[in-house]
Fold these 2 entries.
Entry 1:
Amino acid sequence: MKIRNNVALSDSGFLFNPSSGDSYSLNETGLFIVHCLQNNKSEDEIIKEVTKEYMIEKGSFEKDFYDFKKLMESFNLID
């Protein structure tokens, strides 16, 4: 899973897809995940880093992570 090269991201979490003209606003956790994607982290690495950073249980986060991933795929933001 990798963020598409043409997708622009601001430091504040504003995500822009120039292919579609759509823009999105990420919360702090979404921004953290996108930064992990930009650094070529695997899904397992992302889950591990987020659960550590935000001190949440793996089981609690995994469903949200996979839902977020599906949204990113449906908006053509990741490969």
Entry 2:
Amino acid sequence: MLTVDLRSDPTRFADSEALYLEVRRAEGRVLSPEALRKLPVVAADDPHDREWQTRAGTAARLIGYLRGRQPHPHILDLGCGPGWMTARLVRELDATAVGIDCNRSELERGAEAFGAVEGLELIYGDIFEPVVEENSFDAVIVASVLQYFSDPQTLLNRLLDLVKPGGEILLADTPLYRCEEIPDAAERTLNYYTKLGFPQMADHYHHHALDDLSAFSPEIIYDPRAVLSRIGRSVFRRPFSPFPILRISRPENP
């Protein structure tokens, strides 16, 4: 039976975890284990249906990319939540994967939902603590998560320590702005959470510029501005992600 491995002190994150769960409940995003097992497929009348279609497209792109890179990869899924994508990576890539998060409630629902998935591990832990082994992962997935970290450079340096030489970090489903766009984006975020009833959540949501990543020489492996992506969104109304997928590599030789 799959259980959540506690490797950090859960009392450190108790307040932020409680706030996050309240926000997710208000948004209608806290799902049962049965619903989690069906993700990214949701009912057509689900208010987040289009968003889940977009997440499904991102998952498919990540899986297709990794399938061509490494047989049976060992993957870290940072900020995995209940682990629906982590479990999908294991099943579709014949991989082993570690999902790590500091939200115990979501991890426990994930353990209940995906307990039959061999090769899946769920860890409650602070990524900046020694909760996983360094130089051990072929890829680290950071999907819809970067915005919850205030310092992307420190985070990425830490993640590069965790991947093997030749390994990579894949950033997906995260808005990256031009510097001059950030004040307006921050105001939109505050307005959204204020209307939802949780203005304090805006303090936990950070807005980063693509320039913040320039020291890591990111490569674009999915470009939402490419012609086919724009046609798919505007003409065929397909839920292509509006955010790029970026690859940051650790060199084989330092």
